[in-house]
Amino acid sequence: MLFTIYYLHRHWEYKDMVISLQWLPDKCEIQSRLMALKRMGIVSDYEKIRTFTVAIVGVGGVGSVTAEMLTRCGIGKLLLFDYDKVELANMNRLFFQPHQAGLSKVQAAEHTLRNINPDVLFEVHNYNITTVENFEHFMNRISNGGLEEGKPVDLVLSCVDNFEARMTINTACNELGQTWMESGVSENAVSGHIQLIIPGESACFACAPPLVVAANIDEKTLKREGVCAASLPTTMGVVAGILVQNVLKFLLNFGTVSFYLGYNAMQDFFPTMSMKPNPQCDDRNCRKQQKEYKKKVAALPKQEVIQEEGDIIHEDNEWGIELVSEISEEELKKSSGPIPDLPEGIIVAYTVPQKQEDSVPEVTVEDSGESLEDLMAKMKNI
Ligand SMILES: [Zn+2]
C-alpha cells in the first residue's frame, strides 16, 4: 500500500512531494539513522544541523556531490553559486544526468536536491562571482543569506576549479571575517585537498599563494589548447566526502576538525597540517583580521595549566583492563646501574648497568711446550 502511494506521489509536483514524503516509512528511517549518531555518543545534538546555512561556490564534480551529501544530512539552507551548464562531456562525474545537459548547473542541482530532501531551503545564483557587479551581490548574500534573512551564512565552501575564483572567495571572506573551506582536485585527477580558513586565525589563500597567483600569471594562458584536465569520479567523491565530513565536525562540534587534509591517491597518503597566517599577507583584510584575532586571544582569561600527578589507573573501566609493566621490579633492578647523587628535583631516566665481569667464563690455555714449527709439521701430517 505504502509502496503504491510512494510511486503515485513521486510523479506529482514538488508541493505534493512534501506531503507525500510524510507517508513514507523511509523518511523516518533516514532520520533515525542520523539520530543514532546522538545515541551512540558521537554528536551531542544532531538536530542542530537544521539550523545551519552553507554556501557552495562551484557546483561541479566536487560541489554537486557536496551539496547532495549536505542535503541528505538535513542541512537547513543551501546557497549555490555557479554560471556553468551541465555538459554531456562531464558525465564521468557524479550527480548530474544526461537528460539535464544544457540546463544551468544550479537549476538542475536545485531540482534534484529538492526531490531528495524537500525540507532543505535552496537559494541558487546562476552567475560568475568574479565580475565586479556579481561580487557585490555575492558578498551581500554571504552576509544576509542565512536561514533567517539578514543573518550571515555559517560556512562558505569553495568547490571551484580555478585560482581567480578562489582568490575572489578569499577576498570576500577576509573582508567579512567569514569562515570558509577550500577544496581542490589536481589536474591529473589523482590527488586533492581540503582546507579550513578562519580569517585571522589560520592562513588564508593569499598568505601562501600558489606560484601562479604570486607571480600574477594569467592562468588561462597555462591551459594548453586541445588538452583538457583529467577527472575521476573516485577522487572527486573522496574529496567531497572529506570536505563534508569536516563541515559536519565543524558545525556539530565533534571529533577533530582538520585545517588541512590532503589526499594522494597514488600512495593512499593523507597528509595533515595547520598553517598560521602570514603577517605580511598581501590581503590587507587578512592582516586586519590577524590583529583582531590577537586582541581576542589576549582578552581571554588565562588558563592555568594543571599537571596531573600520579599514575593513571584504569580501574573503573567496564572490562577491568589494568595497565601492568612487562618487567618485574627485580628485573629492572638487575638491568640498572647505581643511581648517582643528584640535586633535588632531578631524576635519572635510566642507568647503565655495571659490567658483569665474573659472568664471562675464563678460558685457560695450557702450554704444551711445543714450538710453532712442531705444531705446523703436525698439522701438515693430518
Ligand atoms: Zn592572508
From TrEMBL:
<comment type="subunit">
    <text>Homodimer; homodimerization is required for UFM1 activation. Interacts (via UIS motif) with UFM1; binds UFM1 via a trans-binding mechanism in which UFM1 interacts with distinct sites in both subunits of the UBA5 homodimer. Interacts (via C-terminus) with UFC1. Interacts (via UIS motif) with GABARAPL2 and, with lower affinity, with GABARAP and GABARAPL1.</text>
</comment>
<comment type="similarity">
    <text>Belongs to the ubiquitin-activating E1 family. UBA5 subfamily.</text>
</comment>
<protein>
    <recommendedName>
        <fullName>Ubiquitin-like modifier-activating enzyme 5</fullName>
    </recommendedName>
</protein>
<keyword id="KW-0862">Zinc</keyword>
<dbReference type="InterPro" id="IPR045886">
    <property type="entry name" value="ThiF/MoeB/HesA"/>
</dbReference>
<keyword id="KW-0833">Ubl conjugation pathway</keyword>
<dbReference type="InterPro" id="IPR035985">
    <property type="entry name" value="Ubiquitin-activating_enz"/>
</dbReference>
<dbReference type="InterPro" id="IPR029752">
    <property type="entry name" value="D-isomer_DH_CS1"/>
</dbReference>
<keyword id="KW-0067">ATP-binding</keyword>
<feature type="domain" description="THIF-type NAD/FAD binding fold">
    <location>
        <begin position="32"/>
        <end position="282"/>
    </location>
</feature>
<dbReference type="Pfam" id="PF00899">
    <property type="entry name" value="ThiF"/>
</dbReference>
<dbReference type="InterPro" id="IPR000594">
    <property type="entry name" value="ThiF_NAD_FAD-bd"/>
</dbReference>
<keyword id="KW-0547">Nucleotide-binding</keyword>
<comment type="function">
    <text>E1-like enzyme which specifically catalyzes the first step in ufmylation. Activates UFM1 by first adenylating its C-terminal glycine residue with ATP, and thereafter linking this residue to the side chain of a cysteine residue in E1, yielding a UFM1-E1 thioester and free AMP. Activates UFM1 via a trans-binding mechanism, in which UFM1 interacts with distinct sites in both subunits of the UBA5 homodimer. Trans-binding also promotes stabilization of the UBA5 homodimer, and enhances ATP-binding. Transfer of UFM1 from UBA5 to the E2-like enzyme UFC1 also takes place using a trans mechanism.</text>
</comment>
<keyword id="KW-0479">Metal-binding</keyword>
